[in-house]
Amino acid sequence: MDKRYINTIKSAVDATVVLRTTYAIEPRLTKQRSAASYAVIVDAALSGDRTISNRPYYIDATRLLFVLTSGSELPRINTQGEIGVFAGETKLNAWDFWMRYPDYLADELIEQYDKTGDDDMLARAEQIFIDSEPDQRRLAMIRYRYGAYEKHDDALAILVSAELIGIGGRKDVDRVIETDFLIYQKAFDLCVQIVRDEPILTWYRDRANLVKTIADGRGGSALKKRQYERVDYAKTLLGGEIPSIDADVKQRLERRLKRPVGGTAA
User: Fold this and answer.
1) Using CB atoms within 10 A of its CB, is residue 218 exposed (0-12), middle (13-18) or buried (19+)?
2) Given pLDDT bands bounded at 50, 70 and 90, which one contains residue 128?
3) Integer distance in angstroms from the first to the last C-alpha of the chain?
4) What is the DSSP string of 212-226?
5) How would you classify residue 9: left for phi > 0, otherwise alpha for psi between -120 and 50, otherwise beta?
6) Most CB atoms within 10 A, among 12, 85, 171, 216?
7) Average of pLDDT values for 47-68?
């Protein structure tokens, strides 16, 4: 693993440590590995003072890489050699919210089941709870003026410096009107390579694709409006951490299943 992606994941931190830091992604996830294997990865990731402070950026960069590639659309005009465009920071935060809040995503899957009767939507929602994702995978976000929000500059800078993505969009004289993320071919290639070399990270690809299904081609404003329809989300104070709704969603799910999550009907 020492030389893998050295020319792809560029940063101020030693390339070997960056790679292993990326693969030490979310300790709660890597607990699925054996204790010995987990210890080796963490030891490698935490070797060096700079690594500890930089580690979250690589976690975020990996997650955003899958979000941006999955959610990109064909460019109307090719400006910098991109093959895909992900339109807008509001949309990025909306997608990232569903990546980081499995209970809210499960709530959307239940809504889709209610609208379509698609049993697969209910099965996917149930699997989220069977896997304890609302507890194990939730990464909190705050509510800001434009909905769920996190400043992604550091994570995006990693992807930009590695020439995986570019930044485009429209600017006024003194402000940015709209930001577009330009996705290059090597970003898609890297996603394929990561899944091949580290199958445990397939979750990121699959979850981003599920979010794509739920987003259903909607832009950032529409997604933000949809997320605000959840009262727990909308009532969060500006700057406050958006709370979990796992207990409520689980109850909704079990009413439709007519049995406990992971159980059998009486």
Assistant:
1) middle
2) very high
3) 50
4) HHHHTT--HHHHHHH
5) beta
6) 85
7) 67
Q: How far apart are the C-alpha atoms of 246 and 243, rounded to whole Å?
A: 9
Tens digits of per-residue pLDDT, 245-262? 999 999 999 999 999 999
For helices 202-215 and 49-70, angle between their N-to-C axes, nearest 10 degrees:
40
Question: Model-level pTM?
Answer: 0.78
Give the C-alpha separation, 97 to 236, whole Å.
14
Beta bridge partners of 228: none
Mean predicted lDDT score pLDDT of the chain = 77
Q: Cα(95)–Cα(146) distance, rounded to whole angstroms?
A: 13
CB 68 within 8 A of CB 182: no
Q: Could you give the 3-state DSSP secondary structure of residue 39?
A: helix
Report residue 2 as tokens: 């020492």
Q: Tell me the three state secondary structure of residue 8.
A: coil
Region of 85 please: left (phi>0), alpha (psi -120 to 50) or beta: beta
What angle is formed at CA 191 by the lines to CA 164 and CA 77, rounded to 5 degrees? 45
- The CA–CA distances, whole Å, from 238 to 60, 78, 141, 233, 260 equal 23, 38, 11, 10, 35
Amino acid present at 62: T
Nearest CA-CA partner of 202 in 18, 4, 11, 29? 29
| Region for 75 from its dihedrals, namely left if φ exceeds 0, alpha if ψ lies in -120 to 50, beta otherwise | beta
Which residues are CB-contacts of 181 (< 8 A; sequence separation ≥ 6)?
Answer: 68, 72, 85, 86, 87, 92, 156, 165, 166, 167, 168
